[in-house]
Design a protein that fits this description.
single chain, 931 residues, alpha/beta, eight-stranded mixed beta sheet, elongated
Length: 931
């Protein structure tokens, strides 16, 4: 570590317990304690010898008061009460919140609480400078100030910001380092200068040794940083002797974390996050979202299926989620005609008493949380909820600390509310969430890794190697703003001076924060365009980087070079696989692990690959034969293909093997607003029932009875939808209601179309199995939607919920079609004795027929409309014969265990597990003209 005057002074006084060392932040104090321990011969050094400036103020400058000091919790309680008054009886603040709707005003709770310590200063300045702001604003500041004073008086509190700091007699000697970096040091300077026990040690402002690299873009800047860190670690530099400070922390840390993980560079991000950002703290905001969003399934899964939460009865919760998915539960709906709790209704209808009891208790306890009247009752309900639904001894240690801190914050709210006379707030749970979104938690765990800090926090740390990437002009500005709750133009009028600019002081401090300090910035940063800091430009410290930069060692000092030949090892490996150069001289650890995995998988000897060779395993073959034979095949030993199973096997035998043979499919855990397959089944059931009802009533379809058929269709729609509701299979209420109405209209259109074309036709088959032998090895078997006949001629109809197939889908002249349904049904119907003169698709979506076959002799009434067919009768019968022959050939291949892949993989769900078609493939390498 760098040896500077601070290290020298600390070591000179470390043995005297009266001497304490004050730094701008806890981070700098912690760093200096470690530095002193390493430089001294001591085995331990007291932590409380190294304190932050805020801690010094608490110890020595806090005014003597019998009352308790107001803190963030009290201020938040006051703000919540005032905003509730503004909502219910307001407006209280006419200028600040007067035009804001009452409910929306709650969003200003945090800003209002932050403004309270500044009110006295603002009030005094407005009295001194009247008429400089609108009267309404002056009224609001005065009102807010007086109301806050009344609150403090009634609660027995005082606001520390309203009381001038006072120095006490102290036996300690305080050494204050980097006073120029302390925002409010000026307010205490007169007390420090008057007391010999306070010794300030300002640092010397200097940018002489500063160095800033300027890159074209942040990606190149990041690559240079990663390369530098990796090389330092490779050279044996301890991670604790390196530090990274990010001026643009939010924009940089995700990219830095990702790249470092790829290269196994250990990083320890020292920036705290709000409690609500940690998984354990996020639990409580998720419960609120769950309640607000009607206990939606997606929100429910984020609680009961979250791996980080040790949920009791996890198997039961997974069963509940599976039930919800299968029964199309999305969320409860408060509109007209819906149940108060849709999931509870579905569980009740299906008789799942245990799951229902679990869910009802869960929902009841969450309702108790949301409706708690005060913080004491809320605390009881929260503890009860956690004990009931989580394994309290199974939390991850770090997650448990966050959870305990969240509960501690709730206890603080309870104690503050009660100590201030029992402050009542309208929504205790929301106020608690608000505080969880403000309270910062920094993990106490320390890894043996390179620390990564936010800019300003790490000022005062002096590792050997210090990197500050993303250090642009905007990102390094630090100004001491006053009266921040006022508009900028009003602040300028009242303060009559520019905010104190500490940017140069921080740049100077960081420029001296290690033996090798490297600033860098980019013309295009991760958060937008960037310029180098003006101070560094003026000092001549900025150098533009054209080529790659890397760390180089010379004369005992590590420096950065702008034109190094260093290259990224990932790029070198990629170039090797493309045949452009030799194998890289070394690999990152993650690449080494990747090679080990490749050696065990892709580069190892393969077993059976049924995508290329026939299945020869007797047990597997026997299973596949049973699947293809079905119950009918048990009797005669044939393979009985349905049109859809044949189409799948003909399209890709390997897909058939995975999907139908081995039943491989992706489990569905997402909320389904509507299931088109299920809707199609319902429509088929309604149309089948309608046609059977017509057949039973009239014996055949009669055009003159359209009105009766429409009435029958409406009744059948209601009965079908009511039946599915009784089974808990209905969708969310608005969608279900709209679907019911759309279905009723679609069936009425069907009645009209049927009356135009098929007047006088009788029903022969509806949702019945058709089968026909093809040869001794196979047959075709399927469930036909409808066969109607008239005057000895039959028509086959297949209902489609959406658009019907195109001509190219059913009749490619030189190959098998992807859809062979109607020709195979026609073959089976003819085998049964029907004279098939028509075959058509009916699109429920479009409300019209699309005819694939229409023989001129068919007795169909086409008067008044032009009926166009997809193919001619000759083409249809040629296609039918071609498909039937292909079924026989497919059966022969099937019997030999052939399930190889085909060249067409469009739309396939199995590409990730198919050896022929990986998502990522190594490019073929050309060498000496040969692949």
């Amino acid at each position: 570590m760098q040896y500077d005057h601070i290290s020298e002074l600390v070591l000179a006084h470390i043995d005297d317990p009266r001497h304490l060392f004050v730094f701008p932040s806890e981070v700098a104090g912690e760093f200096r304690q470690r530095d002193a321990l390493l430089r001294s011969s001591k085995r331990a050094i007291r932590r409380d010898c190294f304190i932050s400036w805020d801690r010094l103020k608490e110890r020595e400058f806090s005014p003597g008061q019998k009352r308790l000091p107001a803190n963030a919790v009290f201020r938040l309680l006051f703000s919540a009460g005032l905003l509730e008054e503004h909502r219910s009886r307001g407006p209280v603040l006419q200028y600040l919140l007067g035009e804001t709707p009452g409910e929306a005003a709650a969003g200003f709770q945090r800003q209002l609480a932050l403004s309270l310590p500044q009110l006295q200063r603002a009030h005094e300045m407005l009295e001194t400078h009247p008429d400089m702001v609108p009267p309404a604003l002056e009224h609001d500041v005065s009102t807010l100030y007086q109301r806050y004073l009344e609150f403090l008086d009634g609660a027995g509190l005082f606001e520390p910001a309203f009381v001038p700091p006072q120095a006490k007699q102290t036996p300690w000697v305080y050494h204050i380092f980097y006073p120029e970096l302390i925002e409010d040091y000026r307010e205490y300077r007169h007390l420090i200068d008057e007391n010999e026990n306070f010794v300030s040690h300002p640092s010397t402002a200097s940018l002489k040794q500063a160095s800033c690299l300027r890159f074209p873009n942040a990606r190149q800047e990041l690559e240079q940083l990663i390369s530098s860190l990796h090389q330092l670690l490779e050279e044996g530099i301890h991670p604790a002797d390196i530090a990274v400070t990010l001026p643009d922390y939010d924009a940089w840390w995700p990219y830095l974390a990702e790249e470092a993980e790829l290269r196994d560079i250990p990083l320890d991000f020292r920036s705290g996050r709000t409690l609500a950002e940690y998984p354990a703290g996020r639990l409580f905001s998720r419960l609120s979202a769950l309640s607000v969003n009607g206990f939606g399934l997606e929100h429910l899964k984020r609680v009961v299926l979250e791996p980080g939460y040790p949920v009791k009865s996890s198997d039961r919760w997974r069963e509940l989620v599976e039930f919800a998915v299968e029964h199309y539960y999305v969320r409860s709906w408060k509109g007209t005609g819906a149940a108060a709790d849709e999931l509870d209704r579905k569980l009740k209808q299906c008789g799942l008493k245990e799951l229902r009891a679990l869910y009802r208790n869960f929902r009841h306890q969450i309702a108790q949380l949301m409706s708690a009247s005060d913080f004491r009752s809320l605390s009881k309900q929260v503890h009860k909820f956690i004990r009931t639904f989580f394994e309290t001894d199974s939390w991850d240690p770090e997650a448990e600390k966050v959870l305990q801190y969240c509960l501690l914050v709730l206890r603080e709210l309870q104690e503050a509310s009660e100590s201030a006379g029992g402050i009542q707030v309208a929504d205790p749970y929301s106020l608690w969430l608000n505080l969880l979104n403000q309270r910062i938690y920094v993990s106490a765990l320390r890894k043996e890794a390179i620390p990564v800090y936010q800019y300003r926090v790490s000022a005062g740390c002096t590792p050997l190697y210090h990197f500050l990437p993303g250090a642009g002009q905007t990102q390094t500005r630090i100004k001491h703003e006053e009266l921040t709750f006022l508009r900028e133009d009003y602040r300028a009028k009242l303060l009559e001076r520019e905010p104190a600019d500490m940017s140069g002081d921080f740049l100077s401090a960081y420029a001296q924060s290690g033996e090798m300090v490297q600033f860098s910035c980019s013309d295009i940063g991760f958060s937008g365009p960037q310029l180098p800091p003006g101070e560094l430009l003026s000092a001549g410290a900025v150098r533009e980087v054209v080529g790659p930069a890397a760390v180089d060692r010379g004369e005992g000092v590590t420096r950065l070079m702008d034109d190094s030949g260093g290259q990224d090892l990932f790029a070198l490996e990629e170039a090797y696989w493309s045949g452009e150069q030799k194998f890289p001289p070394r690999l990152y650890p993650v690449q080494q692990r990747g090679f080990r995995f490749m050696g065990q998988t892709a580069f190892s000897a393969k077993g059976k690959d049924f995508s290329k060779t026939p299945v020869d395993d007797p047990k597997l073959l026997d299973h596949l034969f049973q699947v293809a034979q079905g119950d009918r095949g048990v009797e005669d030993g044939r393979f009985w293909f349905s049109p859809s199973s044949f189409d799948q096997y003909a399209g890709c035998p390997f897909m058939y093997l995975l999907n139908r043979g081995l039943k491989i499919e992706e489990a569905e855990f997402s909320s389904q607003w509507e299931d088109h397959r299920f809707t199609g089944i319902m429509l088929h059931r309604i149309l089948t029932a309608l046609y059977k009802g017509v057949q039973e009533k009239d014996g055949r379809w009669k055009r003159e009875n359209q009105a009766e058929y429409r009435e029958m269709a409406g009744r059948l729609c209601r009965e079908e939808f009511d039946y599915q509701v009784s089974r808990g299979r209905d969708f969310m209420y608005p969608i279900w209601k709209g679907l019911q109405e759309n279905t009723r209209r679609a069936v009425e259109v069907f009645v009209e179309q049927e009356s135009k074309l098929y007047h006088g036709y009788e029903l022969a088959e509806a949702e019945e199995n058709l089968e026909a032998e093809i040869d001794e090895n196979c047959g075709i078997r399927g469930r036909v939607d409808r066969i109607s006949w008239k005057e000895g001629s039959a028509v086959i109809v297949d209902y489609k919920k959406g658009d019907p197939p195109s001509t190219s889908d059913v009749y490619p002249p030189d190959s098998l079609p992807p859809i062979s349904q109607l020709p195979l049904y026609a073959y089976a119907a003819e085998d049964k004795g029907y004279h098939v003169t028509g075959a058509a698709y009916y699109s429920i979506k479009n409300g019209r027929y699309k005819h694939m076959l229409l023989d001129p002799v068919a007795p169909m009434d086409t008067s008044g409309s032009k009926t166009k067919t997809m193919v001619s009768p000759q083409e249809f019968h040629e296609l039918k014969d071609r498909i039937v022959a292909a079924v026989g050939a497919a059966a022969e291949h099937f019997s030999r265990g052939v399930f190889t892949t085909t060249a067409s993989c469009d739309g396939c769900d199995f590409r990730m597990i198919c050896r022929r078609k990986y998502n990522v493939r190594i490019p073929e390498v050309q060498q000496h003209g040969k692949p």
